Amino acid sequence: MNKDDPSTPRRPATRLVTGGRDRATSFDYVNPPLVRGSTVLHDSVADMKARSQARLAGDDEVATYGIYGTPTHQAFYAALNALEGGYRSWALPTGLAACTMALLAFVRTGDHVLLPDSVYGPTRRFSRQTLARFGIDTTFYDPCIGDELEQLFRPTTRVLFLESPGSLTFEMQDVPRLAAIARRHDAFSVIDNTWATPLFFQPLAHGVDVSLHAATKYIGGHSDLLMGTLTVNERAWPAVREAMHFYGLTTAADDVYLAHRGLHSMGARLALHRANAERLIAWLRGQPEVERVLYPALADDPGHALWKRDMSGASGLFGVVLRPGLPAGALEALVDGAQLFGRGYSWGGYESLMIPAFPERTVAPCPFEGRLVRIAAGLEDADDLVADLERSFAALRAVR
Ligand SMILES: *Cc1c(COP(=O)(O)O)cnc(C)c1O
Prior knowledge:
Elements: H1 12-18, H2 45-56, H3 71-84, E1 88-92, H4 95-104, E2 112-116, H5 121-133, E3 137-141, E4 157-163, H6 175-184, E5 188-192, H7 197-200, E6 210-214, E7 228-232, H8 237-246, H9 253-284, E8 290-294, H10 304-310, E9 317-322, H11 330-336, E10 353-357, E11 372-376, H12 382-397
Parallel strand pairs: 2-3, 2-4, 4-5, 5-6
Antiparallel strand pairs: 1-7, 6-7, 8-9, 9-11, 10-11
Helix pairs in contact: 1-3, 1-9, 3-9, 4-5, 9-12, 11-12
Pyridoxal-5'-phosphate binds next to helix 4.
């Protein structure tokens, strides 16, 4: 019999492994049960009434109906919430749904939201088109902004959205400083924390109200899952809880189970994602066609000081800016020349990917001129990956 006293302090990498483990609800198995379900059986009318009232009063663990999550969900929520230091966590069917619901939960007609110009493209489009249709105004701001953010707040500003680093252009944001400004203006701050993962950055400890992830990426880790998560503090939970319950946003237990399974091995995977990224970056920086590599863990990256201050590690996604003035078709030849790197959207899976990237901007010009390739370093042998880059650059050099 081995008993884990929950009051024993554990480091995050250990909590990835043990998080959500509860022998009492898993029949002594190490993994939680996979409970699919809609109907919950009750003992009596009095029991139905008591449980419904407990739920209405805010008890999120009492079982009344599948829409609020089964024991499979509760186990994953416990694991994620402990990692992110939250009050409650919740799963959504996609990462994008986590982005959009983290905005919708807080706003009403006439309100205003602030989005970084580096934000994930579909989040940008949702705000500009869908939120606009409901009479909610968006202002984009320079992701590298400091105290000048203060001037962009209006009396109607409800949400400050952050994404650090941006998943195309990799600018780091001064998260605690910006979250403090939002707090002073009585707005909620929300961060898309997908790049850093719950392992390397705990936004709630830095004053942010909502941390969201595309669990599709490193948490799932195997490109077989679409899922999003929200972890919120006590201040944000009533609004988020209402949105999750009233919009009916439940994620299938099978998907939640896969995300929880992914979490257990995420630490080991991330170590190799980063090591491979650093091998590739070292090679890329030696090529005359490469202008810059965008990766905040690099000592000379403009975001390095913030990364070092706030984050305890780096994942394996980075940008490669090509030297301006290469012949037309050079970028396409580079990407098409790869055999091992897949050409596909997403990242955070075990496979390496390479795509052309087209950052959209409204207020802050892109911090570079050349064309951009985004690389997700997977878990293949690093020598094979470097050999594939050699092939790609040979294809690029053949373009005249
Ligand atoms: C992929 C991604 C999302 C959306 O996740 P999906 O599960 O694909 O909807 C959100 N934010 C970032 C930064 C992403 O890379």
